[in-house]
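stage 2 :: seqdesign
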């Protein structure tokens, strides 16, 4: 009975395959590690917040499964009293929290036409009979040892990548499309006349983010660097050993972890953003946050960077420290309005939501996955 009821909209819901104006009942299922949107650092939950609100603005009926402090225009189903990372409780189980949320979703499956998961693969065993009603966006790196077996075992789940590059380690997985992230166009307002004569680094203090490289570049360019970054517990020793000594100087200011409220000033007043990563970045939200302000980006040729940066327009893509120094000097003269224009054309939350709705409708029509489809 449960399976028949769950499949009802696909068997009988002809309206789902009709005009674009049809209202969809969508469940957005967020990880519980951060609030939606995160209060400080956080990527996946921030995108879930932006997508959820954009879908509501487009007229769809959306229910967000997240922690209780979520700020959303959707109907909130609170699956935990607060997000896990900032919960002061000394002992807590992230696995138990997510399993409880998935159980609650199973109890309400018949309320929705589409279940959109942002929880990696933890839901696969619970929903394998109903995979054709689901969409799973993968937000992290996919070159981990144990992942190929999981995606072979549960290959019936339609997947979405957040960049074409992200797919490479799992090229044969059941990809339905690629949707680049988008953000509200009012969140980081355009700043055509930045007040700060500094370069910016925003992210995490970790070996793959290479803040050490950013410090070296800024010093060679001869400009101050402001670092707004989170330090995870596992990276504390790295910070103390490799990064803290580099911060001793008036030309580098360590601000710490910041949230959305501080980003417009921090990024908007920067002359440029340095993004000198050394890992297969799946997307890199900070690049479009800077572009929204009109701030150009100097980024390493890794992961998604060539898909996000329009080289020579919104920033420069580099492969060496010498190139980065020259590129940083070059982008100081870029037209910031042109940078913002690219953001508005390619990376808004409204555009992201439109792409996802197209994928939801493909599910409703029962289409075969298009392994080459790119929707950004």
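stage 2 :: out
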């Amino acid at each position: 009975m449960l399976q028949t009821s769950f499949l009802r909209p696909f068997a009988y819901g002809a309206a789902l395959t009709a005009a674009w104006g049809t209202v969809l009942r969508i469940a957005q299922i967020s990880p519980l590690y951060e609030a939606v949107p995160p209060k400080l650092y956080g990527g996946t939950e921030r995108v879930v917040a932006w997508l959820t609100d954009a879908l509501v603005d487009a007229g769809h009926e959306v229910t967000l499964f997240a922690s209780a402090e979520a700020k959303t225009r959707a109907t909130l189903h609170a699956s935990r009293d607060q997000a896990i990372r900032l919960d002061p409780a000394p002992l807590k189980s992230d696995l138990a929290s997510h399993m409880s949320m998935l159980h609650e979703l199973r109890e309400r499956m018949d309320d929705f036409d589409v279940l959109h998961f942002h929880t990696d693969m933890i839901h696969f065993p619970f929903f394998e009979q109903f995979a054709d009603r689901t969409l799973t966006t993968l937000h992290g790196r996919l070159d981990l040892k144990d992942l190929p077996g999981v995606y072979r075992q549960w290959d019936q789940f339609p997947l979405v990548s957040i960049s074409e590059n992200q797919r490479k380690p799992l090229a044969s997985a059941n990809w339905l499309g690629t949707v680049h992230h988008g953000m509200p166009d009012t969140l980081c307002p355009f700043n055509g006349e930045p007040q700060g004569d500094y370069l910016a680094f925003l992210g995490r203090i970790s070996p793959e983010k290479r803040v050490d490289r950013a410090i070296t570049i800024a010093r060679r360019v001869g400009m101050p660097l402001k670092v707004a970054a989170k330090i995870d517990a596992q990276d504390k020793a790295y910070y103390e050993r490799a990064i803290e000594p580099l911060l001793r100087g008036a030309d580098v200011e360590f601000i710490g972890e910041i949230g959305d409220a501080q980003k417009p000033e921090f990024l908007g007043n920067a002359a440029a953003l340095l993004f000198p990563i050394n890992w297969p970045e799946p997307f890199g939200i900070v690049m479009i946050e800077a572009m929204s302000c009109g701030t150009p980006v100097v980024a390493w040729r890794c992961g998604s960077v060539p898909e996000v940066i329009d080289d020579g327009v919104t920033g420069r893509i580099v492969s060496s420290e010498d190139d980065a120094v020259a590129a940083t000097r070059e982008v100081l003269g870029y037209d910031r309005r042109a940078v913002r224009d690219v953001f508005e054309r390619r990376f808004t939350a409204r555009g992201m939501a439109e792409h996802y709705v197209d994928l939801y409708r493909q599910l409703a029509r029962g289409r075969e996955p298009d392994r080459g489809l790119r929707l950004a």
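stage 3 :: structure notes
- The chain is about 35% helix and 15% strand.
- Residues 2-184+348-365 form a domain with the Rossmann fold fold (CATH 3.40.50.2000).
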